[in-house]
Amino acid sequence: MKQLRIHKEGKSALIKIGVVLILINAVLLILLPGTIFTLFLAVLSFLLYAMAINFYRHPDRTYKGDLHGLVNAPTDGKIVTIEKVFEKEFFHDERIQISIFMSFFNAHSNWIPVTGKITHFSHIEGNFHAAYLPKSSHENEHTNILIETPDHGTILTKQIAGAVARRVITYVKEGDEVHIGAPLGFIKLGSRMDIFLPLDSEILVEPGEEVHANVTFLARLTQKER
Fold first, then answer.
1. DSSP character at residue 127
2. How many CA atoms lie within 13 A of 136 on its CB side?
3. pTM here?
4. What DSSP assignment string belongs to 130-176?
5. In tens digits, what is the pLDDT along the chain, a chain of 226 residues?
6. Which residues form the catalytic set?
7. Chain centroid offset of residue 36 CA
8. What span, in angstroms and rounded, lies between the C-alpha atoms of 76 and 203?
């Protein structure tokens, strides 16, 4: 049996959540001993704590090798957008945008989508619209991470905070050499990630599909002529 791994950002949070739930149950057990309500609260507390553990879970998944030309799903979640858009901030041309929405039930660890070099990183303050809304991609608090691959062009990925999530954590910085499937960061509570790919990319997923980081490939990139 694999050992359950908890994300490093979640260990202290789980301790705090556990202490709060224990205190609430202890007080109500004293005030309302032996009632159906206290039993219901105990069961509800257990379920809430189990959900929190799942949220902060750090899936033990890795790729072997650099897998050049393939785009890794950078998080667990549901594909909510696959569309052609005009990316006006970095590429100034049309790209294919793939958006993955993370619900509270998904593990919220983020992973590197492609092997390459980070040529730009920025953290943008913003609003906290519901993460499944299209406008959250550019209006919400988010990061911009440009990764230049050795032979398949440059992609843009974004970590986007949602209506409840108000903390985006990123482990990488500009100039880093990164490898597909390596840890990228973490976003607390409901949120999303966007990937912007060249138009000639072969898309391997469909809208509504559930994807898993370091398991699902989103696309296959076309090798660029040198």
1. B
2. 26
3. 0.78
4. -TTSTTHHHHBSEEEEEEE-SSS-EEEEEEEE-SS---EEE---TT-
5. 455 566 666 667 777 777 888 888 888 788 877 778 778 888 888 887 777 776 677 667 777 778 899 999 999 999 999 999 999 999 999 999 999 998 877 877 899 999 999 999 998 886 655 555 555 566 678 899 999 999 999 999 999 886 555 578 899 999 999 999 998 988 876 688 999 999 999 999 999 999 999 999 999 999 987 6
6. 191
7. 39
8. 17
